[in-house]
Amino acid sequence: MNYSGRPSRSWTVLQASRESPTLARLSELVADSGARLQCISPLLPPALRASVKAGPVEDTVWCLLVANNAVAAKLRQLLPDLTAHLRTKGWNVTQIRIKVSNTA
Questions:
Q1: Domain boundaries 13-100, corresponding CATH code
Q2: Angle at CA of residue 104, ends 35 and 62, nearest 5°
Q3: What is residue 68's DSSP assignment?
């Protein structure tokens, strides 16, 4: 029972996202970011792929989360090619930001 005295109902994340426009939009952004990463993965050096994670999407800016400064430096060299590749695949990307994150 919950605080109102009514039996509580458990929802899966998928069910909750269907019921909430905010969660639905968040789910779309997460899926979009993951699809972008999957699209550019073949362009990344194999040794870097495990160190790069999909980050947030904000309009035409996408963020990549990386494990350390060395990965960030190498990735910065690839940004023009990655951005161009995403555009050829239909994404309106004007900028890719890189953020060093210890969770990447």
A1: 3.30.300.180
A2: 45
A3: S
pTM over 0.70: yes
The overall longest dimension of the chain from CA atoms, in Å, is 58
Question: Burial level of 32, CB count in 10 A (0-12/13-18/19+)?
Answer: middle
Chain centre distance of CA 1: 36
Residue 90 pLDDT exceeds 90: yes
Q: Where are the domains of the chain?
A: 13-100
Q: What share of the chain is helix, strand, coil (3-state, %, to 5)?
A: 50, 20, 30
Checking if the pLDDT of 4 tops 60, the result is no
Instruction: Indicate if the pLDDT at residue 22 is higher than 90.
Output: no
Q: What are phi and psi of 18, to 5 degrees?
A: -70, -30
Q: Could you give the dihedral angle defined by the CA atoms of residues 49, 97, 73 and 71, in that order, rounded to the nearest 10 degrees?
A: -30
Task: Give me the pLDDT at residue 13, please.
Answer: 65
